[in-house]
Amino acid sequence: MHKVYIIPFLISSILITSCTNSSLKKKKAQAVKKSYIKNFETINLDYQLKEISGITFINDSLIAAVEDENGIVYFLDLIEKKVVRKLIFQEPGDFEDITKVKNDLFIINSKGSLTQIVSFKDKRPEVIQHNTAFKKKNDIESVVYDEAQHQLLIAVKAEDLKGNEDKKAVYTFSLTNFKVDEEPYLNISHQKILAIFEGDRWEELSKAFLKKLGNENLNKVFSPTAMAIHPQDKDLYILSSTNNFIVVIHQQEIKQVISLLGNAFTQPEGMAFNSKGELYISNEGKKLSGNILKITSIHDK
């Protein structure tokens, strides 16, 4: 008699659990706040910064920037809107991002190698090279200083250190032993991103675009090109130049996704906050020079 009733009970329990888990996943995806940016102030850059790839704040009126090809740090005065200093640190290469760590600057290239400029305010600062576990196939474009943990965060644009491409990994780089922890600090799956935008016009446009490129994996819609940490709430902002959006991470979970609207976001490659929590995004130029956009408002969808 027991066997007759236990089996249906178990089946019912499994079905209920399955439906509950499915509903919870759906609710979790729906709980992510969806926003957009379309209001900003534009700072047009000198033609020498057409290939601007990374920015960091020195103070609220001074930005340090790097561009793809030349081993030069450009110091841009936001009030005068011009380059006030150039610091040559290396021969031409493929430089992707820059971050300030106290009195030093760290620049990362696409292979994941780091250049440390010690006491960058000096006339002839010391320059130190740091090799990492990353290679060309990882395609690195973003680095940011995590002041709370005194470490760097580095995101892969392509495959992670284990060869996976179905999710994007963020790793830590110790500023004590100058090594990468090969276990990811954070993983963001493409499926999570797609679940957030499920049914949106954004998702359909992304899939159509990828099909045109002949990309069989339609999940490849998220390519980290810059990161920034909000100075007040400490949320991690990750910029994707693919499909032009920002993923906001709070306590290891996706809290918000922000779409970038408008032709001014030609190719968003750099991102940084000033001390007031004001967000700035830099764009590589195409036919014209690059720009830096000061975001003036973020709207909810």
Uncertain segments are 1-27
Number of domains: 1
What gyration radius follows from the Cα positions, in whole Å? 21 Å
| Proportion in β-strands | over 45%
Can you tell me the CATH topology?
A: Neuraminidase
- Please give the number of β-strands: 20
Strand order of the largest sheet: 14-15-16-17-1-20-19-18
Q: Globular, elongated, flat, extended or rod-shaped: what is the shape?
A: globular
Q: What is the helix fraction of residues, given as a range? A: 10-25%
Query: N-to-C terminal Cα separation, in Å?
Result: 56 Å
In CATH terms, the superfamily is TolB, C-terminal domain
The main sheet comes to: 8 strands, mixed
Mean pLDDT: 87
CATH architectural grouping: 6 Propeller
Structural class, please? alpha+beta
Number of helices: 3
Top-tier CATH class:
Mainly Beta
Instruction: Provide the succession of SSEs.
Output: HEEEEEEEEEEEEEHHEEEEEEE
Explain this structure to me?
There is one protein chain. This protein is of the alpha+beta class. Strand 15 and strand 16 form a beta hairpin. Helices cover 16% and strands 46% of the residues. An eight-stranded mixed sheet has the order 14-15-16-17-1-20-19-18, with no helix packed on it. It has a single domain, classed as Neuraminidase. The termini are far apart. This is SdiA-regulated protein. Its main location: membrane. Belongs to the YjiK family.
Question: Mind sketching the topology for me?
Answer:
Blueprint: H1 2-31, E1 33-44, E2 52-59, E3 62-67, E4 72-77, E5 82-88, E6 95-101, E7 104-109, E8 114-118, E9 126-130, E10 140-146, E11 151-156, E12 167-174, E13 180-189, H2 190-196, H3 201-212, E14 224-229, E15 236-240, E16 245-250, E17 253-260, E18 268-273, E19 279-283, E20 291-300
Parallel strand pairs: 1-17
Antiparallel strand pairs: 1-20, 2-3, 3-4, 4-5, 6-7, 7-8, 8-9, 10-11, 11-12, 12-13, 14-15, 15-16, 16-17, 18-19, 19-20
